[in-house]
């Protein structure tokens, strides 16, 4: 089964939770431990990436450590073509559609395409949409962040992504955002497209996770919380809230 099929198959039963680990924020060994805790807490996949100044060796080592720790798929979530690894199970082949810089829309993708194809790595085409405030993802990706209170642009981008053949659309408030993507925005995008909607950034409590899940997020992503709550208990409650959402 491909990772894309795994996502769709799990989604048929409940919403998914994914855990983001930034290779820059801990040693590969610690990433392996965190990944095991997250997988024990019920997360459905580990995403590796979201950073800038990281070397490919570090990404490789992190992916290998995460794979040995976790029982769930490892999906690359790269900031650039320099953050890839052949050891992952799949790659979000993502385009930051609301960037001002073509480099983040198709430039890094052009650079990485040949090697990714040569590796035979599974790619999942994904629209990456940065929503206000966007935080570091918005700055680094030179995004014009989408307004939080008006869904028009987000809907247009999401439909365009679906028509371009993308398999997922990701609404990103930015790591450490004070508030997650608003429920009304998630709902508006979910109602506009048939592809799964992923939501991340600023989700730190079961209540916040439940709110985006109930609004229609098919996949809820948390990053920071797993680094803060080392016991995995906070994460377990978040995963339960996502799975319980109807
Ligand atoms: C992934 O950027 C998020 O989309 C992660 O955000 O670190 O705030 O959970 P947090």
Number of strands: 8
Q: Would you tell me which CATH topology applies?
A: TIM Barrel
Radius of gyration: 16 Å
Average pLDDT metric: 95
CATH superfamily grouping: FMN-linked oxidoreductases
Structure description:
The protein contains 10 helices and 8 strands. It has 246 residues and is of the alpha/beta class. The chain is globular. β1, α2 (28-40) and β2 (45-49) form a beta-alpha-beta unit. The structure holds SN-glycerol-1-phosphate. SN-glycerol-1-phosphate binds next to β8 and α9.
Summarize the structure.
The chain has ten helices and eight strands. It has helices spanning 3-11, 28-40, 56-69, 102-119, 135-140, 152-163, 183-192, 206-215, 224-228, 233-244; strands spanning 16-21, 45-49, 74-77, 90-96, 122-130, 168-172, 197-200, 219-222.
SSE layout and pairing:
Layout: H1 3-11, E1 16-21, H2 28-40, E2 45-49, H3 56-69, E3 74-77, E4 90-96, H4 102-119, E5 122-130, H5 135-140, H6 152-163, E6 168-172, H7 183-192, E7 197-200, H8 206-215, E8 219-222, H9 224-228, H10 233-244
Parallel strand pairs: 1-2, 1-8, 2-3, 3-4, 4-5, 5-6, 6-7, 7-8
The protein binds SN-glycerol-1-phosphate.
SN-glycerol-1-phosphate is lined by residues 20, 172, 174-177, 200-203, 221-225.
């Amino acid at each position: 089964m491909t990772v894309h099929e795994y996502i769709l198959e799990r989604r048929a039963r409940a919403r998914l939770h994914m855990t983001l680990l930034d290779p820059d924020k801990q040693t590969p060994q610690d990433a392996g431990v965190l990944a095991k805790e997250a997988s024990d807490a019920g997360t459905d996949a580990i995403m590796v990436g979201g950073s800038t100044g990281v070397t490919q060796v570090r990404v490789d080592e992190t992916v290998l450590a995460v794979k040995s720790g976790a029982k769930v798929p490892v999906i690359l979530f790269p900031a650039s073509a320099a953050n890839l690894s052949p050891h992952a199970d799949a790659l979000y082949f993502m385009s930051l559609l609301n960037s001002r810089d073509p480099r983040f829309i198709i430039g890094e993708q052009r650079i990485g395409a040949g090697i990714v194809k040569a590796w035979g790595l599974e790619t999942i085409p994904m629209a990456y949409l940065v929503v206000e405030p966007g935080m570091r993802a918005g700055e680094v990706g030179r995004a014009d962040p989408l307004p939080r209170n008006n869904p028009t642009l987000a809907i247009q981008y999401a439909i365009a992504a679906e028509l371009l053949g993308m398999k997922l659309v990701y609404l990103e408030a930015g790591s450490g955002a004070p508030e997650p993507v608003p429920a009304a925005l998630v709902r508006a995008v979910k109602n506009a497209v048939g592809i799964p909607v992923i939501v991340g950034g600023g989700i730190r409590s079961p209540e916040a996770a439940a709110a985006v899940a109930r609004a229609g997020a098919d996949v809820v992503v948390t990053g920071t919380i797993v680094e803060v709550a080392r016991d995995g208990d906070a994460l377990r409650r978040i995963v339960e809230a996502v799975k319980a959402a109807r």
